[in-house]
Amino acid sequence: MTSSTGPRPSLLDGIARVLLCLVFLHAVIGKLTGFAGVAGMIAGRGLPLAPVLLAAAVALMLVGSVLVISGYRVRLGAILLLLFLVPTTLLFHNDVADPQERIALLKNLSIMGGLLLVAERPAA
């Protein structure tokens, strides 16, 4: 279906974008409600300015999710989510000997694949 402004995203497309971002929205809530603990975990990994990094991560996840879900500047939203997810995965889910970390790594790689598909799609 097309309109004067271009093709309209389907209902299925909208549902897929919401489902793809649920994990990020859930993470934002957890990071905000447990900010000090998460910042401590980040600092425990030897990263400087943990509260600043955490605030940046929350911003990337929140803005990226809102853009992807809303259908406005979806490609930018997907890129923002990837900017959060790639370093997070490399820094925090790299112990493939641990079955839980391996699952988290594979989950994140799958989400990255979905975000790359979203970023690659033509703008509606």
From TrEMBL:
<dbReference type="InterPro" id="IPR032808">
    <property type="entry name" value="DoxX"/>
</dbReference>
<protein>
    <submittedName>
        <fullName>DoxX family protein</fullName>
    </submittedName>
</protein>
<feature type="transmembrane region" description="Helical">
    <location>
        <begin position="18"/>
        <end position="43"/>
    </location>
</feature>
<keyword id="KW-0472">Membrane</keyword>
<dbReference type="Pfam" id="PF07681">
    <property type="entry name" value="DoxX"/>
</dbReference>
<keyword id="KW-0812">Transmembrane</keyword>
<keyword id="KW-1133">Transmembrane helix</keyword>
<feature type="transmembrane region" description="Helical">
    <location>
        <begin position="49"/>
        <end position="69"/>
    </location>
</feature>
<feature type="transmembrane region" description="Helical">
    <location>
        <begin position="76"/>
        <end position="93"/>
    </location>
</feature>
